[in-house]
Design brief:
Length: about 240
Amino acid sequence: MSVWARLKRSLRAIFGGIIEKTEDPELILQQTIRDMRDRVPELNNSVAQVMATERLLAKSKDRLEEQVVDLDSKIKAAIKMNRDDIATAYIGQLQQAQLDLSKTGQQLEHATRASEQARKARDNYILQMQRRTAEAMQLINQSKQAKLQEQLAQTMATFQLGDDASTFNEMREKIDRRAATAEAKLQLGTSGVDNQMQEIEREAMDMQLQDKLLDYKRQMGLLGGGEKEAPALPSASGESQS
């Protein structure tokens, strides 16, 4: 092997390794997604131009059809007025309008097909871009997961569990002590005199509500024979109801 061939092989090996190390799959995929999205406005603009041509031709066809109808009426009117010279002139214009209408109709057919194809091409590109984007995101997630696994493997290779065992034990003891203290304070708070008074007040309120319910049932004649009637409640004026 010649010296030049060996040198060329060495350079390829060196630069190839450098390029491979500097290539980040995540960055390349993200740039690819951006490039695909950047093409969408340009594609939309091209499709819009094709659709605009179709609409212009459609309007031109409508005008020519109206012109043909108008010239036909003028020809008939000129003939009725015995103005063959004017009728002949209108006939010439009519023939030209009919020729223009035929050409415009053909152009409109081509433009309509081109517009449909352009819209389909645009929709296919959007669909393909969405699929590629989803695939790229999956690959990016896999790349991130691989990086995390690499970092975890490097960490585990140098990690000594015994070095931090005392720290974990100390923190666990502090947390357990704090939890026990908080639980004791909560128990004291719920068993105090104030709490018991609140429970009594709630019970008294429930009894009042039940008495009121029975009073309503008595007034509506819904009390059964076996149900206990509630005592009459004072009216708004302070006197008991009869």
